[in-house]
Design goal:
Helix content is 51%, strand content 0%. With 102 residues, the chain is mainly alpha-helical. The protein is globular and about 35 Å long.
């Protein structure tokens, strides 16, 4: 006997739409869908670093990435979700330009 019940009309398409919206918010899935994009690859790596994966995105991951303090990371100056001035200040700090020698 078949216990499968038919879903309501349109319910399946709304579930698929919700999944597509969730995929758009996951930078790892974005990178997998667009493997030639450098910026998507960097965003995916940063998300991976803060604990996200294909099926889970950490709450507040954008803020965590923007406030990243791993200055030794080669991608630090390219990380997403920051302003251009934030990139310039961290690049000069990493290179030692703004460090004062006493």
């Amino acid at each position: 006997m078949n216990d499968f019940r038919k879903s309501e009309p349109g319910l399946e398409s709304s579930v698929n739409l919700e999944n597509q919206k969730a995929n758009l918010k996951n930078p790892i899935l974005k990178a997998l869908n667009n493997p030639r994009s450098r910026s998507a690859a960097i965003a995916a790596k940063c998300c991976d670093c803060v604990g996200c994966d294909n099926s889970h995105v950490e709450p507040g991951f954008r803020t965590t990435i923007a406030e990243c303090e791993v200055f030794d990371c080669p991608l630090h100056s390219f990380r997403p979700y920051t302003t251009k001035t934030a990139h310039k200040s961290t690049q000069s700090d990493v290179r030692g330009v703004n460090k004062h020698v006493s």
